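Observation: inputs received (chain + adenosine-5'-diphosphate).
Thought: call the complex predictor directly.
Action: predict_structure
Action Input:
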Amino acid sequence: MDAARPLTPSGFESGPPAEGAARATPVMEQYIEIKTANPDCLLFYRMGDFYELFFEDAEIAARALGIVLTKRGKHLGRDIPMCGVPVHRSDEYLHRLIAMGHRVAVCEQLEDPAEARKRGGKSVVRRDVIRLVTPGTLTEDTLLDARRNNYLLAIARARASAGEDSRFAIAWIDISTGEFRIAECDRAAVAADIARLEPGEIIVSDALYADPEFAPYLRTLPAVTPLTRDVFDGASAERRLAGYFGLSTTDGFGALSRLELIAAAACITYVERTQLGQRPPLSPPVREPQGATLLIDQATRSNLELVRTLAGERRGSLLAAIDRSVTAAGSRLLAQRLAAPLTGADAIGRRHDAVAFFVANAVARADVRERLKAAPDLARSLARLVVGRGGPRDLAAIRDGIIAAAGLAAELERFPEIAAELAQATQSLRRPDPAIADELAIALADELPHLKRDGGFVRAGYDGVLDEARALRDESRRVIAALQGRYADTAGVRGLKIRHNNVLGYFVEVTAQHGEKLLAPPLNATFIHRQTLAGQVRFTTTELGELEAKIASAADRALGIELETFDKLAATVITAATAIKDAAGALAILDVATALSQLAVERHYVRPEIDGSLDFIVEGGRHPVVEQVLGGDGGPFVANDCDLSPPPPAPHGRIYLLTGPNMAGKSTYLRQNALIAILAQMGSFVPARRARIGVVDRLFSRVGAADDIARGRSTFMVEMVETAAILNQAGERALVILDEIGRGTATFDGLSIAWATIEHLHETNRCRALFATHFHELTALAAKLPRLFNATVRVKEWQGEVVFLHEVMPGAADRSYGIQVAKLAGLPASVIERAKVVLAKLEADDRASPRGFDDLPLFAAAPRPASPAPHDAAVDSVVAALASLHPDEMSPRDALEALYALKTKAAAREP
Ligand code: ADP
Ligand code: MG
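Observation:
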């Protein structure tokens, strides 16, 4: 808890709040005017050493930050709620508010309070908002995670015309690195892209925000900001976008659709608004062609724990397991690539070539990694310098980055046969002018302060005038001491001293006995009497006065010169922004290539073969995360093969139906194959002995419902909604992982759903799939579905105990060993014994009246009703309601609510 600012008796600087109820004080008037102009932000209103928040803002912030809510004065007869945060700690509070999705307008005092007083007693200090801080538009190191991009994303929609779906375009910007991209996409891809990019903030038009179809989805996302229509205006979009880059047209950006222009212009306009006109150094927008990346929806991402675990931590995720990068920019690029694996075999191959180069050249790898460690975060330092928030250390980062880039280029140029991606990066490394680094190296001191206003960052000897100013300031004692010696000689008084106090400033002092001498000619021409004390007489001199004035202003002057120097150096850097940004990108690419090769060597990964087939062959595959947890170099983790390639002559891939007891390793096996596909297509080597993968264009992974009552949703409903999405969307190039689907309901329901799902995958989706299940009955399907392949995880029973071998092999599990697993888990012996008796009885009954799953007719679908059903209004209304549902666009909660609504409608039906 932080104490709020204590109430001071003076209240607002305009004096006590207005007496009576009706009138606002001048400060309140100013506050209300500024607040009215920024209605959707918390207003940080600068008052001296604090940012104050008032009214509802104060209540929100006090609750969010856990600081004390007090009151200050009255407005319209009511107490004004207030809280405050100290300016020197404001970054930390900003960080927490932004992380919770708030937006903050920072309002500063634009003049010294003394200036305001000069205008008259009632004058208010001039204030205005200098910046809007929103989750998607941050540049400060303290507010950003160094290893993650922070995107602002705009969604633009073209309404559906008859018979067509709505079309969308999205544009996203990381203003802290300058990245700027655009894509046109359909509804499902919008969600998949948002899941991939995890934008810090999303902007949409008011209309889209209120749209009954789209709004429920938007409500599931953090930090969505609705904006007025002009931001998404089509007529001015091109002009706004071109204007940002100082161009007259956007033709140079390639052919952008009207919708793409709108999304891009919305981003630009929002950046300008929040930065109050400052223009961060954005790269020209790059269009992401549709289908260029592997589509992975949100459920699959969290399920496979790509960038964080289900518990929300980076540790334990795939990203954490494979990240060997040594720079923040490299870590960000690696995360980007992991989030968006490619679908073009050639492009993937180019990345593999780069990794292969460093796998083969161990010395170059070690050397590059060593040099990269000295390369700072160029992109983010550059962005801060451009928007005027940079400090001396950002200049140093540019210097060190350029030097490191040149060194790396020289290192790589020794290899004429280098991989194409690396050759291109080498060229980019050479782009910044080395003269900039030279200039910075000469100009900057060895030790640098964090803030430029602290001064002391310009190296001695760089600027003669600055050196003089500093000499006066820093060496004031020496200058004065020299003067003291000279005066002692002139006056012939050995005990003459030059002293300093706050009343007189510098003065010459002699004992009373020598005072007369200095007061008489000729010395009185030099020494001017100031003060006579009991034992001493004090004088000043013209020279001392001048020297003192010089010393007093020297510090100011030195700082002024330093700030000018800073601006000059920053300007030099900014003119080279594009070259520096290119070099920054190249450093990140090198970091990723070496990091992935380091990983490959360390963990014995191999280069996968990627092609346009529908094959999927993994030999000796391992789970990249689990194997590291088990800590084995070929140690305890059991490698397994997988072959989902089309079994000739079938044109489509296989479905593995995996059975085996709990804890056998089914889930691990499913996931490892999905992760191998992701790693391969992001450009990494893979944890296997050999892998050949025909490009996957869409990846789905679902796990049967585990109880999730805490989050208050019907888990079975979630499971079904997610399964529906797969069955509706997966094409022949998809890879589908279904783990124990149907577990969330009664056995027969669950089994039937699993059964029908497999049939649908086999007959309609025709995709490669892995399906783990505890329903042994499903293995009968293999007899009828030619591309269904039964596999099982081997276990051994030994003296009544079950031993897990984690070996996947053809065949079906004979039984589930549930009781043995329960025994391993430590259930009391009496319970285990009783369970065995019950099981024996159940199995005997089952044999007596076989369920006969083998006889289930395949693909007969539901039997048709014998005669057309009589007309029923309730049925019509249910059907109409059903037809209007869009399952892909519903959150689990919406889906559940819709289900209840349907049930109510159905209940209205006459019996
Ligand atoms: P299931 O889904 O069949 O219940 P899991 O995949 O959850 O089983 O695996 C259970 C545990 O077995 C895992 O936590 C892991 O430690 C271990 N395990 C799984 N597969 C392997 C393997 N191939 N080699 C070694 N240990 C494994
Ligand atoms: Mg499992």
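Thought: report the result.
Final Answer: The first strand starts at residue 42 and ends at 47. The longest helix spans residues 542-575.
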